[in-house]
Amino acid sequence: MRKPMMAGNWKMNKTINEAVALARAIREQVNDVNNVDRVICPPFIDIPMVSAELMGSNIAVGAQNMHWAESGAYTGEISAAMLKNLATYVIIGHSERRQYFAETDETVNKKAHAALAAGLTPIICVGESLEQNERGETQEFVSGQVKAALSGFTAVQMAEIVIAYEPIWAIGTGRAATAEQANDICGGVVRKAVNELFGDEAAATIRILYGGSTNEKNIGEIMAKPDIDGALIGGASLKAESYVAMVKTTSELYC
Ligand code: PGA
């Protein structure tokens, strides 16, 4: 069985003090939920303090981005080696990075390789725009993104990679995909693409999250779907109450 994951993407929110307080509140309330992986992804600058706050807990820290090079003249960037002892996960290719910072399938693939090589688990994001969705291009586009992101990996490595399907039209809009829509793409497109590349076992192993306007109200229905293994949560991860409720709902479903 794939272990469910609730990953909070705090985006460009929370000063250091706010971040530590939120991490502490989460730790106090869901540290002993053992059947759900909990990952929180604060801004880079908050990571050392959040990581210290969560030391000895079983809540993991992730970054929201990284560069693919080991080091060098890349002003403003952060490498996998810098994250390594502070984080276990790293979000790669979020649609906001693709949209505002010109990330491409190629850079996403390079980052994913660099992350895994450094021992970080990449959470690779894919998802179509509203226009693509309306034109009926979702399946082809998302499948292409998955295949490009996973180029050069092996079947065995699929156990150490997480993919998040996040339709752009659902992110931060309050308009989540229905549980059926999300499950159809997570299973019928993302998992299928992994199967085509790496076979049945890899497809059965890889964890696929849904992201886009998830919250404490819709998470139960979403997590009840067989091909959805978790959520990448934006807005609702910024408040301890909603994130904690989502973890608890998932935990009860998987009991
Ligand atoms: P949202 O963001 O939950 O606020 O829609 C999800 C994401 O961008 O990961």
What does this structure look like?
The two termini are 12 Å apart. This protein is α/β, with parallel strands linked by helices. The chain has one domain: Aldolase class I (TIM Barrel, Alpha-Beta Barrel), CATH 3.20.20. The longest helix is centred in the last third of the chain and has 20 residues. Helices cover 42% and strands 15% of the residues. The chain has an eight-stranded parallel beta barrel, surrounded by five helices. Helix 10 links the parallel strand 7 and strand 8. Bound molecules: 2-phosphoglycolic acid. 2-phosphoglycolic acid binds next to strand 8.
**How far apart are the termini?**
12 Å
The portion of residues assigned to helices is: 40-55%
Q: What ligands does this structure carry?
A: 2-phosphoglycolic acid
Radius of gyration: 17 Å
Coarse structural class:
alpha/beta
**Number of extended strands:** 8
Oligomer: single chain
**CATH architectural grouping:** Alpha-Beta Barrel
Number of helices: 11
pLDDT average, as an integer?
98
Strand arrangement in the largest pleated sheet: 1-2-3-4-5-6-7-8
Question: What does the main sheet amount to?
Answer: 8 strands, parallel, barrel
Strand content bin: 5-15%
Q: By CATH's scheme, which homologous superfamily applies? A: Aldolase class I
Written as H for each helix and E for each strand, in order along the chain, the element string is: EHEHEHEHHEHHEHHEHEH
Which word captures the global form?
A: globular
Uncertain spans, ≥5 residues at pLDDT below 50? Answer: none
